[in-house]
């Protein structure tokens, strides 16, 4: 049988990762955070002292990204997020990461490699480009200030010393870059259900998603 696919898109710190993981657990589906793929490419370049805007270096790095390297805690840093957004604008990088994402959607498997009946995939272009035929599409959003506050708290909790104004500015720049790039920009698919988490907590977002998913799966 064809695996069921839930696509979850939205900007940074919208709560899409939390929601996607919870949906995956609820339905017994595999989960792929595609932001980590772009982060892995960005981190490789940062560690090699290369510029994330260096197209040839970024494309070469993207060609060798493997799921095994996605657990590195350094992937979660703010600097890596910015580098990820820079490499994500490069068409050759997106192309190089397509195959891995499509394989996951066609034959989803859990961490132990066991096949699952479906997948939850989160990112920016899942409902529009990667899985346009997804059974369910969600677009998770929140105001810029709400997302910046969340991200600031997350970074402080992880011991990264950074001021709120800087987080807000970085987030706004990354949003702009992700929305306005020429290939696969962040966008809500016309058939996606939008969940605004500005005034919704994780339980509220999960409940809204389940109500929408209802009989669709
Ligand atoms: O979601 P996360 O913040 O980890 O994503 C990091 C960056 O990777 C985003 O700012 C975006 O530029 C890029 N990305 C993307 N397409 C995806 C997932 C992430 O372009 N499907």
TrEMBL record:
It is found in: Cytoplasm. Coiled coil: none annotated. Residues 6-203 form the Cytidylate kinase domain. Its EC number is 2.7.4.25. ATP binds at residues 10-18. InterPro entries: Cytidylate_kin (IPR003136), Cytidylate_kinase_dom (IPR011994), P-loop_NTPase (IPR027417). It catalyses: CMP + ATP = CDP + ADP; dCMP + ATP = dCDP + ADP. Keywords: ATP-binding, Cytoplasm, Kinase, Nucleotide-binding, Transferase. Pfam families: Cytidylate_kin. One of its GO terms (cellular component) is cytoplasm. Gene3D superfamilies: P-loop containing nucleotide triphosphate hydrolases. It is an enzyme of class 2 (transferase). One of its GO terms (biological process) is pyrimidine nucleotide metabolic process. CDD domains: CMPK. One of its GO terms (molecular function) is dCMP kinase activity. Belongs to the cytidylate kinase family. Type 1 subfamily. HAMAP family: Cytidyl_kinase_type1. This is Cytidylate kinase. It comes from Hypericibacter terrae.
């Amino acid at each position: 049988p064809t695996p069921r696919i839930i696509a979850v898109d939205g900007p940074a710190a919208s709560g899409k990762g939390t929601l996607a993981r919870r949906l995956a657990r609820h339905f017994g589906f595999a989960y792929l955070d595609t932001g980590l793929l772009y982060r892995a490419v960005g981190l490789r370049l940062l560690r090699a002292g290369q510029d994330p805007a260096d197209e040839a270096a970024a494309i070469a790095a993207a060609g060798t990204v493997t799921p095994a390297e996605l657990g590195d805690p350094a992937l979660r840093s703010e600097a890596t997020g910015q580098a990820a957004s820079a490499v994500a604008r490069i068409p050759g990088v997106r192309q190089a990461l397509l195959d891995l994402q499509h394989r996951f959607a066609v034959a989803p498997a859990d961490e132990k490699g066991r096949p699952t009946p479906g997948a939850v995939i989160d990112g920016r272009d899942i409902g529009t480009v990667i899985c346009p035929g997804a059974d369910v599409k969600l677009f998770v959003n929140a105001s810029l200030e709400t997302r910046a506050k969340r991200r600031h708290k997350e970074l402080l909790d992880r011991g990264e010393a950074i001021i709120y104004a800087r987080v807000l500015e970085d987030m706004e720049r990354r949003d702009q870059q992700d929305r306005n790039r020429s290939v696969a920009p962040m966008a809500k698919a016309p058939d996606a259900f939008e969940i605004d988490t500005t005034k919704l907590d994780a339980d509220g977002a999960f409940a809204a998603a389940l109500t929408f998913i209802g009989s669709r799966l």
